[in-house]
Amino acid sequence: MEFEESGIGEECGVFGCVAAGEWPTQLEVAQILTLGLVALQHRGQESAGIVTSNGSSPPTYTTLKGMGLVSTAFKPEDMLKLRYGNLGIGHTRYSTTGISELQNCQPFVVETLHGKIAVAHNGELVNAAALRKKADQYLLISLLTMQDFLGDKGVLRHGVGLSTSSDSELIMQLLCLTPPMEEVDAPDWVARIKNLMTETPTSYSLLIMHKDVIYAVRDPYGNRPLSIGRLVPISKLHSSGGEETDTEGWVVSSESCSFQSIGAKYYREVQPGEIVQISKNGIKSLNIIPRPEGDPPAFCIFEYVYFARPDSIFEGKPHKKDFSSLLNPFHVSGLPYIEVLCKNRYVGRTFIQPNTRLRQLGVAKKFGALTDNFAGKRVVLIDDSIVRGNTISPIIKLLKEAGATEVHIRVASPPIRFPCYMGINIPTKEELIANKPEFKDIANYIGATSVRYLSVEGLVTAVQSGIESYKKEQISSGSKASTKLGHCTACLTGKYPVELEW
Ligand code: SF4
């Protein structure tokens, strides 16, 4: 139950689509992108954007962006503008860096020396501040020494000025730089992407559209998810296997939950450090950038706990299937599992300024107690996390007032003690209840009879069980992917996957 509406911010969602076969395509790429983004709406609700391309040389890009949910950001009459797209990428945003305004809405499009590129990004660059200085220096050099000789092309060769505060524009800057070992002006996009990946180790899942292809890129630590799906005729959707000749198009998404709603079959994950080229001819793995020797991968463990939809597949397995049975104490204890609260999902952020009466009603506006189910009984309540500790107390009070004799809280994650620098908005250290003196007697502080947390080891075991066998299968099927297991637990342990640069 998501009781703790406490300020952990989800991140962003990216989605891409390339029509297979002859172009112009009959596939409605813009509609597929829109539906894909709707399925990723839980990852960001501040703004949404789509860029489609006809894929010709030079390509025509069409961009649509808006604030709010996908359903309100795109008007039907505007969607018509995107109808000639053979490929495209989309983004739904929750701002972790950069302020919330249309200017920061992705995907970004920029003109480079080698044609336009569009970029959609999920994550946050751990060394953004250092990179930003570097990008500014390059720009200064280009302006002082090259523009007089080369005009606008000199500026393009070294990127353009940063006009927004988001990491995604910084990524575009780095892509515009000529890699050190390349000839000046060489249009080798794979070398440029590799250069970006060596400049910044994490955290990003990226879609880069250029000419007639999309590059799907995951950072070497695999901190953010990215999966590939295959669009098939609806009649083949539920048949197992299937020929790749049936393929109507390829999709790539932050989460595979979006594949069901658009008639795509899960194909595989983009591996940590992998650059995959997606074109009308299919999928091609171009390179895998390794991590420093000995470093394990660091997929965000909170994707399992909190962010991702339960019908998504991560690391080769449906994530909630095994996970919930291990976490759910009702499953192992034999205690009856009953509903005790009814949530009004439509309260959300209200525009009504709370007066004293509404404030006193507090949590009752959002939850109704199913009194007959528990009056006179002891209740064990499961929450996915306790972050600030200010949302659960009114719920406990509500249950007690409605007749619960005891309320025991069990938390399906360890205490959160540290900030995240990889794309998740977590309150400051001082705001986290686990760092406050009151935490020593948290049960008393929140009004519960008892409180127990899952241990870090328990969470890691729950997540990693089953993944090992999948990794072994990958090796036996000839995959070049690393079989090392590892998850980021930094907000729980303070051990970050890379050294932080400030
Ligand atoms: S610090 Fe926490 S939220 Fe951030 S990537 Fe690591 S596990 Fe995920």
Q: State the low-pLDDT regions, or none.
A: 143-156
Helix content: 25-40%
Broad CATH class of the largest domain: Alpha Beta
Side-by-side strand order of the widest sheet: 3-2-4-1-10-9-11
Biggest β-sheet description: 7 strands, antiparallel
Q: For this structure, what is the CATH homologous superfamily of the largest domain?
A: Aminohydrolase, N-terminal nucleophile (Ntn) domain
* Structural domains: how many: 2
Strand content: 15-25%
Rounded Rg:
24 Å
GO molecular function: 4 iron, 4 sulfur cluster binding; amidophosphoribosyltransferase activity; metal ion binding
Protein name: Amidophosphoribosyltransferase
Domain Glutamine amidotransferase type-2: 12-281
Function: Catalyzes the formation of phosphoribosylamine from phosphoribosylpyrophosphate (PRPP) and glutamine.
